[in-house]
Design goal:
The protein has five helices and twelve strands. It is of the alpha+beta class and 264 residues long. It is globular and about 50 Å long.
Length: 264
């Protein structure tokens, strides 16, 4: 249920140009520093499983989610963090799926070959490359927003961790991401990794699961790195990107709910 949402975070937020841009070392360094802090935070939270999810620390938030509300908000600041020549997008969402077990939910979210069914129309192709608690998969995503029609071909590594008796978490990282400009058109252009329009340079998702109250709570933090927004456009674009970011995460969580409601 993870990565497909992040390609939506930036699309429609920029005016593309014919000239490709390249990920700069200082931008990548800022991303790695941010992810190192996030990983350390998750590792620290895992040492206290009873408070792994934010829901465990907020009765108000838990009550909203338990009542069926999908809650999404920025995980850091306004959801967009400026770094040298780039932006880090950090959003988090919460969902409760009733009448299922964690085993059933984890089985669905690791059924990568079925992502075209669960997360259509954005996911055009998906394939399991390695299964198990340490796994990998490939995925082709397409998103058309406003005047932008782009696709992202990628490969991802993921790892799942059990925290008995009732909690789990996973980390999914994009290991190869290639933008496709003008997807499906005669002038389609596939860029090598770290080059392109800069919609998506890097991706990481952290998902947490808790089986309780007759169902499963999910917390999903989606983090992505993109090119920066030019200062001259920022007044116009910031709000658009934030709305797309929130809407994309809500849609993904809603699709995850629907996939787990299906009887098979």
């Amino acid at each position: 249920m993870k990565l497909r949402l992040v390609v939506c975070l930036i699309l429609g937020g920029f005016i593309t140009s014919s000239r490709a841009v390249e990920l700069q070392p200082e931008t990548n360094n800022a991303w790695e520093q941010f992810i190192a802090k996030l990983d350390a935070k998750v590792e620290q939270e895992a040492l206290q499983p009873d408070s792994l999810l934010a829901l465990d620390r907020s009765a108000v938030l838990r009550a909203k989610v338990r009542a069926g509300k999908i809650v999404v908000f920025p995980a850091t600041g306004s959801g967009m963090i400026s770094v040298p020549s780039g932006l880090i997008h950090d959003w988090i969402g919460y969902l409760f799926i009733p009448d299922v077990t964690a085993h059933q939910v984890l089985e669905k979210v690791r059924a990568f070959d079925r992502y075209t069914e669960f997360y259509k129309p954005s996911v055009l192709a998906a394939k399991t490359l390695k299964s198990g608690d340490v796994c990998s998969f490939s995925m082709l995503l397409r998103q058309k927003v406003m005047f932008v029609d782009a696709a992202l071909d990628g490969q991802y590594d993921c790892a799942y961790f059990a925290l008995p008796p009732s909690r789990w978490y996973s980390i999914t990282t994009g290991t190869r991401l290639q933008e496709i400009r003008n997807y499906g058109r005669p002038d389609q252009q596939v860029f090598p990794p770290d080059k392109g329009d800069g919609f998506i340079w890097r991706i990481q998702d952290v998902a947490k699961y808790e089986e309780a109250d007759g169902g499963v709570y999910i917390e999903l933090e989606a983090v992505a790195l993109s090119r920066t927004i030019p200062v001259a456009l920022r007044w116009m674009v910031d709000g658009v990107v934030k709305r797309i970011s929130r809407a994309a995460l809500v849609t993904t969580l809603q699709q995850t709910l629907e996939a787990n409601r299906k009887q098979e």
